[in-house]
Design a protein that fits this description.
alpha/beta, Spore Coat Polysaccharide Biosynthesis Protein SpsA, Chain A, nine-stranded mixed beta sheet, two-stranded antiparallel ribbon, 13 strands
């Protein structure tokens, strides 16, 4: 089969597999092997390092040495550390496939991953973004079980659902190039790509799910998105809380901007007005939460809480702020208990981007996912 870059001239849509890494020297060799073992063709694989300070890039280069397999390989090292979403933007410039499959340098994609996602997209031309099940593993590679299990599975997410806090499992995510062609680069300030990209996809199509374990998804103490069931100190919790609250404000602002570029209701039963209403409500809560965190005294926090209640923020949300602020150890103990044995989260619904603590918006265990190491 002849190819131009990774685009097939026979009509078969070509895929680009983006393996994005930063300071993941312990895991990157296994991640590279998983990428090279993909069975789908034609496939382009972009190996990109975000200016790691350890041997991540050198190990990538060594692992690719002498490769003579069927896939087109691109190796890149950024001159400076761009951060997660700017790194994705850079990798998108290097990629040429019609479909983009993303992977982190500490996860391992199973050989049939790209092929399975491509079959789903071929069967569902309206689908602009898709994710799959994964199996959770620890630092040593020991499995903690499938992420989604039992009888419940995530529904296809509409734009309003995603704006409300339900993202996708980013470690298993793929999207059509059209999503970026329509909306442009993500920009460097966004850190929740697994909410920003599927939100864009849902504005112009649907977001799907493949009920197969296609990724070995590694949870460890150095993930970019720190899981609160792995935290051990109040200082760690408070630093993460501040960063995530500020990130939610930026993300919701971007969602509002992206929504403004769409003039027709997206597929499904979620009109633009309903999506806009959800964004405004979430944004109001996110800004109150960020104000609470920045407040330096009890009277100021009390004033923020009163204002939040007056604007419709739930008492439960404010109680959560209180617990994280003044009862961090009991709060973390509860999160660890909720996460289950061996820290294995047990989600049953969509993935919440509004918290990284072990429960999603529907009350089932969950956490957000795609991590490009420890960027930014």
């Amino acid at each position: 089969m002849k190819t131009t870059g990774a685009r097939s001239v026979t009509g078969v849509p070509a895929a680009s597999f983006l393996l994005l890494a930063f300071n993941q020297q312990r895991f990157i060799r296994e991640a590279v092997r998983g990428a090279l073992e993909q069975t789908y063709s034609p496939l382009e694989i972009v190996f990109s390092d975000d200016c790691s300070t350890d041997r991540t890039f050198e190990i990538m280069r060594e692992a690719l040495g002498g490769y003579s397999g069927p896939h087109r390989v691109v190796l890149n090292r950024n001159e400076s550390n761009l951060g997660l979403t700017a790194h994705i933007d850079r990798a998108m410039e290097l990629a040429s496939g019609d479909v983009i499959v993303v992977a982190a340098g500490d996860d391992v994609s199973l050989p049939g991953r790209v092929a399975s996602l491509m079959r789903h997209l071929a069967r569902h031309p309206e689908c602009m973004s898709v994710h799959s099940n994964v199996v959770s593993i620890d630092e040593t590679g020991a499995e903690n079980g499938p992420w989604f299990h039992g009888t419940r599975r995530p529904d296809a997410a509409g734009a309003a659902d995603i704006a409300a806090g339900n993202g996708v499992l980013g470690a298993s995510h793929a999207w059509r190039r059209e999503v970026f062609e329509r909306f442009g680069p993500l920009g460097g300030r966004i850190i929740r790509e697994d909410a920003a990209i599927p939100f864009r996809a849902a504005l112009i199509g649907t977001v799907g799910y493949v009920d197969e374990v296609l990724v070995r998804y590694r949870r460890h103490g150095s993930n970019m998105y720190r899981y609160r069931d792995l935290m051990t100190s109040a200082a760690e919790l408070h630093a993460d809380w501040r960063a995530q609250a500020e990130a939610d404000v930026v993300l919701l602002s971007r969602m509002r901007s992206d929504l403004g570029r769409v003039t027709e209701d997206p597929p499904g039963a979620q009109p633009l007005a309903a999506i806009r209403s959800v964004i405004e409500s979430r944004d109001l809560r996110a800004r109150h939460e960020a104000s609470w965190i920045r407040a330096g005294s009890f009277p100021r926090r009390l004033a923020v809480a009163c204002a939040a209640l007056a604007h419709g923020v739930s008492p439960r949300a404010i109680a959560r702020w209180v617990a994280m602020q003044w009862l961090p150890r009991p709060y973390l103990a509860r999160i660890r208990w909720s996460a289950g044995p061996r820290g294995s989260l047990r989600p049953a619904g969509l993935v919440s981007f509004s918290r990284r603590e072990g429960r999603n918006a529907s009350g089932s265990a969950a956490a957000s996912s795609t991590r490009e190491g420890k960027e930014g």
